[in-house]
Every structure is written in structure tokens, then in C-alpha cells.
Amino acid sequence: MDLDALAGCLSSSACLVTQTTSGLIIGMLLFLVAVGLTLIFGVLKVVNFSHGAFYMFGAYFAMTAYQLTGSFALAMFAGAAGTAVLGLIFERVFMSRVYGADVLMQLLVCYAFVLIFDDVVRIIWGPEFKSMGMPAAFQVMPLFIAGGVVPPYYLLLIGVALVVAIVLGIGLSRSRIGKVIRAAAHNPGMVSALGINTGLIYGGVFALGGMLAGLAGALAAPVRSLTPGMGFSVLIESFIVTVIGGMGSILGALIGALLLGLIRSFGSLGFPLFTEGLMYLFMVIVLVSKPTGLFGKEAA
Amino acid sequence: MTELEAGRAETLAPVRSGAALQRYRDVLIALVAFAVLASLPLFTGSKALLDFVIRCSAYGLFATSLNLLVGYTGLTSFGHGMFFGLGAYSFGLIMQKLGVPIPVAFVATLAITAAIAAVIGAICVRLKDIYFAFVTLAFQMLIHSTILSWASFTGGDQGLRGGIPRPTFLGINLANHIHLYVASCALLILGLLAMRQIAQSPFGYTLRMIRDNAARASFLGIDVWRAKLTVFVLAALFAAMGGMVMALFVSGAYPEFAYWTISGEGIFINMLGGVSTFLGPMVGTVLLLLLNDTVTRFTEYHGIVLGVVILFFALGLRKGLLDFVADWFAHRRDAGEGR
Q1: Are B63 and B284 in contact (CB under 8 A)?
Q2: Domain spans of chain A?
Q3: In sequence order, which ranges of B251-301 are alpha helices (DSSP H)?
Q4: Do B149 and A299 touch (CB under 8 A)?
Q5: Cα–Cα distance for residue pair A165/A170, rounded to 1 Å
Q6: Quick one: angle between helices A13-44 and A152-174, nearest 10?
Q7: Which of A278, A283, A274 is nearest to A240 (CA)?
Q8: Were both Cys, which of A150, B62, B161, B168 would link to B173 (CB 3.0–4.6 Å)?
Q9: Is CATH 3.10.450 what the domain over A3-126+143-289 is classified as, yes or no?
Q10: Residues 252 through 271 of chain A touching chain B, CB cutoff 8 Å
């Protein structure tokens, strides 16, 4: 425990800015992964245990595309589009077979793919740590805000995640497709009876969720190291986010992810060895005081 | 006595003697199983085989205790591994720091586990379904983080090293491989027998009723919360027993024992073997360990092989192996009677 460091940081604006941005980065990446998880759970009622693998694939796709083309935009596109296709195939071919089955069977299918995907990455890209490197466009002087250092790439990352949050929120509540998706989440039988292909909606939502995780992976690729199994810690943390925010709630995922990011960045100062413990402690406190999460609906 | 009561007494009596009969049968099977396992070293000198059985004992106790929660009560715990780790660490720490005789450390570990499980369980069993799963997972990770960060006491990420002293007691020397093997088998069989008694007791049937319809159980006057808490603590005790066998076997304790993957493996074992038969988790344990051992010998990409096997169970059989076999026999019997 190092409370002096924490107190020292809280009283210095430079440190405050640096730690807050790094917390926001962690939070925003987590949000992108967690919002896909929460969407899939909300509509398909499936806890996608293999969601971390999509994050991992997004990062690897982006790295390969960047190495081939040298274009950052194409790398992001490859990460997002590649995982969307992967999500669609995964849902249609495998997950759709276990919807009626026990929840544990669904978990087992996902668990199987966590193992398989990790090994596939190991075979294609090798077991060692990889790094994509920061694109040239962002290798510029960092901004100084109130004495704190903020790399411009961080601002892009935060911006993209915020745009996704707003588009998703408005899209789901206002657009026709959004309404159909919410209807399918509520009563798939009725939606299907009205002549709408629910299989397509399920596949689409899974692809969307996979795409968001892939985008998060692609965005993280320049600032994190890539390794098989990198999806796992992200998965666990985004589970915490969805549980804290409330399963199925987009706003909840955003708030939960930001809270968790800030806990991580400031916790690492005050409790360097117990940072993870802090997150779980927070989750226990939320679950015990409000089992459905901060923004979850009461149990239906 | 009214006619109705008389009728009931008549039907109850055979049921009771039936239960007693089954208990004798269970004890008999347990004795035979122990005799077979314990005489194994007489026929083979293979250390690898004996090691395999010891590992099966540790994981088997753990997985079967998890089934008390998952299969019998419908409580899908994702954090059951914390008690496996807790058992290993408490036992190791007591032996290293206090140097008491092994049985004393054994009982003390069970007492510590019971106390911690009661506190954690009191919080967890209020929640249902997926929320129960997540809160147990969170506690598991909390314990794991504590083990990692309290390095001066637990050895941190290096684990509890330096070996666990194994002084001789009652002529049993657990530093001797054969003694350790027989002791592990004895603990496994005793643990399984005790869990079988719990599962077949009226309390065990109460648990099944809670699993199938908690609201009805509550209306019938059962304190659902207390029953769930009781089975949570009981299951924790057997998981800790598994952890102690593991700690004795590797002569240490490592943070991985308390990591969530242990819980994941426990769930996986239950799914492999089947949750609706008592011995399903035991079958699953042997299957998983065999699978792990053989696959890692042949390929470095054992994740793919293991994953495909899991897919076969999940998408092909759609249930655990022993469940599948039991259903198949039931189906055949029904078909035979129909003819």
C-alpha cells in the first residue's frame, strides 16, 4: 500500500491529468468490449465467454493489415470487419445450435472456442509478443494539458469510443432496426411471427458485438503488446463492467467501464499490488448492494 | 390411526429400509473401491500411475463437491476454486509456520475454510443465477489477489515454497510415496462417501427441490437461504480437502490453485462427466486428466484438440458422458418394457 503516492498525485494537477487520461483509455477500450458483451447478452441471452477472442483477433487483424498496407485506417477497418465476419460465422454455425440448451452448454461451447482461437493465433502469428507500433500520423508531440502529458492517439481513442456509444444509444432507441432488435430481445417468438427473420437479427447482433470488440482490439494494437491469450484479462474485466453497469444496459457499460478504468489507474498508485483486488472488491460491493447492477433493470 | 395414516405408515416403512439398504450398498461399494485402489501398488510399480490417481483424488473431491452446488442445488458457482486454493494454502501455512501434527492442521484447515465459506456464502447465496456466478467469481479473484499481494505471508506469485513438512503420525509417513498414495485414496473414498450421504439424505432432496422450484420449497416452510448456505459451506469443506491433497502431493501451494481457471476446470469436469449422476464428476475428472496428459504429450497445440473434444460433448452429446450413458440405458430399458 502506498497511500502517500496516491495523495501526492491527487494534489498535483499534472499527475491528475495523466492518470485520468490513462484511466479513460482503459475505460474506453473496456467499454467497446463490454458493450458488445452486454448487447449479445441483452438480445441473445447468451453470456459470450469467447468475447475476449474477438478483441484478440481485432488486434492481430489490424497489425497484419497495417504491416501489409501501411494504412492506419485500413488497419482499423480490417480489425472491425474481420471480427464482424468471424462473429457472424461463429453465431450461425455454432452458437445457434445451443440456444435452447442449458446455459452451461453455451458456456462450454464458448470455452472450447477460447482454447481453439488462442491456438489458432499461436499457429498463424506465433507464440511470442508482437507489437504493431504507433502509426506515423500519431508520432507527434504530445499535448500538455495543465502540466499533464496526453498523446494525441489517446484523444482519438476516446473520441472513437464516445462516437460508438452515442451512435449505439441513439440507433437502438430511435432507428427501426434498433426497435426490431429491442423487440427481438423482449419477445423473439412474436417478432418472428410478424415475419422478421430473428436468425438474421441474432447473427447481426453477434456480428456487431464481435465487431466492437475487434475495433477495441484494433485501437489497442498500437499501444499494447499482442500475445495469444491477450483477450482473457480483457474478457474478465469487461465481465466486471457489464455486471457493475447492469447486464444489457449500454449506459451502464459506459459508466461501469469508466469507473473501472479510473479505479485501475488511480488504484495502481495507491495499491500497486492490489489493483486487481480493488476491481473485484468494487464488483462485490455493487453486486451485494444492487444485484442487477447500477443501471440494470429489475429481474424480469 | 385413520386409514390414510395407516396406508402412509405402510409405504414409509419400505422406503426407510430401502434407504438403509442403499446406505449399506454405498458403504460396500466404497470399501471395495478403496481395496482395489489401495492394492494397486502391489501390482504395479508405476509411479506415474499412482501420481495420476493422487491427482484424480484431489480434483475428484473438488469436482464432486462442486456438483453438490451445480447439479444438486442449481447454484452455478464460478468461484468454487477459491476453497481449493484456500485449503492448500491454509494447510501449507499451518504446517510450515506452526509445525503441528498433520491431523491437527487438517482439522484446523477445515475450520478456517468453514468460517470463511460461511461469510462469503452468506453474501453470495442471496443472489441468483448469473449474478451468483459472478459474485462467486469476484470473491475468487479477490482471494487470488490477496494471495498475490500479501507476499510476506503467502510467498506472492512464487507460491508457498520450501516444501511442506510431513511429520509421521500414527505410523503414517506422508513423505513416503506409497503412504501418501493410500492416504489420498482414503480421503477420496471417505469424501465421496460423505458427499453421497449428503446427496441421498432428506437434506439432499431438499436441495433438489430448491433447484427445481425454490418458491415452492419456500412455501413448504424450508428456509431456502439457510439450506443454500449450508450446502455452500459443506461443498467448500470437500473442496478444501481436495486442495489439501494437492498441497501434500506437490509439497507446496501456488497462486494458480486459487485462480479462477480452477473453477472453470471444475465446471468443465462436471459438464464432461455429467451432473445428474453422483459419479459423473469423478468420471469427468479421469477423462479430463487423461485428455490433458495424453494430448500434451502429442502436440503443443493441445488447446485445439481439447476444444474440439469439448465441442463434441457440447454439440454432439449435448450432455456429460455418464448422463449420456445413463439416458441411453434408461431408453433401452423403456424400449424393452414397451415390447
Answers
A1: yes
A2: 3-126+143-289
A3: 260-273, 280-298
A4: no
A5: 9
A6: 30
A7: A283
A8: B168
A9: no
A10: 271
Which tens digit of pLDDT belongs to each residue from B106-165? 899 999 999 999 999 988 888 777 778 878 888 888 888 888 877 777 777 777 777 777
Cα separation, A99 vs A198, in Å, equals 13
Asked if this assembly's ipTM is beyond 0.90, the reply is no
**HSE (CB half, 13 Å, CA atoms) of B249?**
27
| Grid cell in block for residue A287 | 453486486
Which residues partner with A226 through β-bridges? Answer: A130
Q: Which of B76, B128, B142 sits opposite A280 (nearest CB)?
A: B142
Q: Give the CA distances from residue A226 to residues A42, A128, A251, B102, in Å, rounded to whole numbers and listed in that order.
A: 30, 8, 29, 46
Asked whether the beta carbons of A243 and A113 are under 8 A apart, the reply is: no
Three-state SS for B109?
A: helix
- Identify the three-state secondary structure at position A226: strand
Within an 8 Å CB–CB cutoff, is residue A144 touching chain B? no
Please give the Cα distance from A251 to A166 (Å, whole number). 10
Rg (CA), chain A: 19
Helices (H), B213-279: 214-219, 224-250, 260-273
d(Cα A28, Cα A260) in Å, to the nearest integer? 10
- What is the amino acid identity at position A36? G
Q: What is the DSSP letter of B256?
A: G
- B306 close contact with A: CB closer than 8 A: yes
Q: Shortest Cα distance from B239 to chain A (angstroms)? A: 21
Query: For A105, how many CA atoms within 13 A lie in the half-sphere containing its CB?
Result: 20
Distance CA B183, CA B113 (A): 21
Q: Which of A255, A249, A258, A244 is nearest to A288 (CA)?
A: A244
Nearest to A118 among B127, B303, B313 (CB): B303
Pairing of strands A148-150, A143-145: antiparallel
* Distances A107 to A72, A92, B103, B283 between C-alpha atoms, Å: 35, 16, 39, 20
Q: Does residue A84 come out as left (phi exceeding 0), alpha (psi in the -120 to 50 range) or beta?
A: alpha
Assess contact for B229 and B44: CB atoms under 8 A.
no
Measured CA to CA, the distance from residue B222 to residue B220 in angstroms comes to 6
Q: Do B304 and A120 touch (CB under 8 A)?
A: yes
CB of B123 closer than 8 Å to CB of A286 = no
Q: What is the distance between the terminal CA atoms of chain B, rounded to a whole angstrom?
A: 43
Strand pairing partners for A143?
A150
The model's pLDDT over B214-260, given as tens digits with 9 standing for 90+, comes to: 888 888 888 888 889 999 999 999 999 999 999 888 887 888 888 87
Q: Is B160 helix (H, G, I), strand (E, B) or coil?
A: strand
The tens digit of pLDDT for each residue in A227-249 reads: 887 887 788 888 888 888 887 78
Give the integer Cα–Cα distance in Å for A60 and A52: 13
Q: What share of chain A is helix, strand, coil (3-state, %, to 5)?
A: 75, 5, 20
Measured from the Cβ of residue B121, the count of other Cβ atoms closer than 10 Å reads: 24
- Tell which of B123, B124, B142 to mutate to test the A interface (max A CBs under 10 Å): B142
Contact at 8 Å (CB) between B53 and B36?
no
Model pTM?
0.80
Q: Can you tell me the distance from the alpha carbon of A147 to that of A9, in angstroms, rounded to the nearest whole number?
A: 13
